[in-house]
Amino acid sequence: MGKLYVVGIGPGGYENMTLRAVKVIENSEIIVGYTKYIEMIKDLIKNKEVISTGMRAEVERCKKALELSKDHVVSIVSTGDPGIYGMAGLILEMRKDEDVEVIPGLTASSAAASIVGAPLMHDNCNISLSDLMTPYELIKKRIELAASGDFVISLYNPKSKGRPHYLKECIDIVKKYRKGDTPIAVVKNALREGQEHKLFTLDSFDDSVVDMMSVVIIGNSNSYIKDGVFITPRGYKIPQ
Amino acid sequence: MGKLYVVGIGPGGYENMTLRAVKVIENSEIIVGYTKYIEMIKDLIKNKEVISTGMRAEVERCKKALELSKDHVVSIVSTGDPGIYGMAGLILEMRKDEDVEVIPGLTASSAAASIVGAPLMHDNCNISLSDLMTPYELIKKRIELAASGDFVISLYNPKSKGRPHYLKECIDIVKKYRKGDTPIAVVKNALREGQEHKLFTLDSFDDSVVDMMSVVIIGNSNSYIKDGVFITPRGYKIPQ
């Protein structure tokens, strides 16, 4: 009897994986994943059978992992949390009677937030700007509602070559509801090699620093920058 | 020179901590935290100085941790991700010139989601129903906007003795926007001792099983239950 683990490796650096994710991968016979993610855990999977596939081969990759899991212990790995814009959904949709377990990992917004301070301390939402599977009109509607509800907003997949102007258009929507000094953080490669971050305000925002490996976090109406740190207050009364 | 780590231990079970969180705690001289969280990591902090305080002593606890961090390496620990409804914000708000680093952990919605399937696969938001620091009118407004934007909704602090009817009222708001067969998951003590979960629909929802240790996840208009698993499709085309 085999088993399929859908494993989140978190941001990509070994030390931000959970102990459970490490253990599950170590105990697996076969590792399946997108080439780039496989590379991130290469020290952990020496001497294992590895099946890596290119980008946008998600359905094929999940099919293969499910098939193999009938007779083998298999881990299909991805960065972040497989349950948030990851592979957990597709695996469970395609599953027939295979034994599947989801191993959660640190999602990109948590990783990015920890680098710039504490921007997600209050009600917050994750919105992907990728329109591959979501109409852009719905994405913009969600931005508008999140902005009007004063949610802190984390943007996943904020920019790609095919839709360079979406991010700027979405920031313009948020501007209708928030002051110009509202903080925005751009975090690239959060908690992994190549990490960079930059803080802006709605008024000073420059989308040219943003790429597909970035997360963009927009504060709520109470967020502020203090000594280079992005804080959204939870509301505690602090004695002076 | 001391240092203060604001450490998320994740759901509470040792194996869902990150390697980095374990290492940082092991390397700290003093551990500060709410009594209940300290208990969860007791095997990790034998022979360390431990300062535990009761519930709602957040400001006092953070003040103490900051003070001690001037001359010692200190970890202030909490469950989940300290950057999401945790202690990172308060610490950074109160900080003067202390050296502070936030160590992210698995947040409750990720942990809960992994147990019931893949409910958070699309745009989603976290809303706390605690009105200790947020007016209930604003909470209800956020529920309404999130429901109308078809976000998957994770409710933190869904119920307490002082506000037993909030959850039901919020579910009633969601009902105005979603079909009666929309899945709802209640997950109690996700990925720690005492774990329990139950799936409902908007129509069958029974709030009597919910307590303060639960997270409630409400699906979007495409979410469904398949063989006891809660799935929100990301939108991939699956060959039949």
UniProtKB/TrEMBL annotation, chains A, B:
Pathway membership: Cofactor biosynthesis; adenosylcobalamin biosynthesis
Family matches, as Pfam families: TP_methylase
EC number per UniProt: 2.1.1.-
Domain of life: Bacteria
Keywords tagged on the record: Cobalamin biosynthesis, Methyltransferase, S-adenosyl-L-methionine, Transferase
GO molecular function: methyltransferase activity
Stretches assigned to the Tetrapyrrole methylase domain: 3-203
InterPro entries the record matches: 4pyrrol_Mease, 4pyrrol_Methylase_sf, 4pyrrole_Mease_sub1, 4pyrrole_Mease_sub2, Cbl_synth_CobJ/CibH_dom, Precorrin_MeTrfase
GO biological process: cobalamin biosynthetic process; methylation
Record bears the keyword Transferase: yes
Coiled-coil positions: none
Segment forming the signal sequence: none
Group of enzyme by EC: transferase
Keyword Lipoprotein among record annotations: no
PANTHER family: COBALT-FACTOR III C(17)-METHYLTRANSFERASE-RELATED
Name of the protein in its database record: Cobalt-precorrin-3B C(17)-methyltransferase
UniProt organism field: Clostridium ragsdalei P11
Phylogenetic classification of the source organism: Bacteria, Bacillati, Bacillota, Clostridia, Eubacteriales
Gene this protein is translated from: cbiH
